[in-house]
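User: I'm writing a tutorial on reading structure tokens. Could you give me a worked example: one chain, its sequence, then its tokens, then a sentence or two explaining what the tokens reveal?
Assistant: Sure. Here is the example chain.
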Amino acid sequence: MPFARGRSAVHGQVVPGCLLTALCAVTGAYCLLRTRSGTGEERRTARAEALMGFGMAAMAVPAAVVAPPAWGWAVYAALFGVAALRALWFSRRSGHHLHHLVGSSAMVYMALVMAGAGGAAHGGHGSHTMATADGAPLLTGLLLAYYAAYVLHSGARLIPVAATTAGDGAVAGGPRAAGWGARPELAMACRLTMGIAMFAMLLTL
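And here are its predicted structure tokens:
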């Protein structure tokens, strides 16, 4: 039954895309919450991460659910191109903005690829029109390697931070626990989540 098999394949592609969209949207919402507390640099970082989370959520929506207009990819590319320039400017103050630069540049790259594919690659559908007989383009491979290393590094850093925070909260008479918008382990978990999501999205190219 070709129709049944086709329907099952579409369902198998839609569900992961919807889950990835929801995960990135929740992450972006928490980063937006973080913009209400912390220093100026911390709020600036949280705004950049919120933009990344919501942008990734929008880009991960499967085409079977919402088909983006043809000009939508140009908007993504322009928006994250500006974000990349902003990250490059602020990287003079903080090295973490270099990661934002890589992330924004990766979003521009994916938007251009999807625009070249006519949107067929949206949400994991279709093939990478820039692929060659030798496999994925070099840039895709470099970005995958970067995010794989970033995820491993962030995961290793998250464990001691979470343990320290839990230990501090258990001490009687100790300092008050930070609010939800200022918990370092949650901020690091959000960055780890977005790193994993970016890796997953790059795999679909």
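What the tokens reveal: The chain has one domain: 2-203. The two ends are 29 Å apart (CA to CA).
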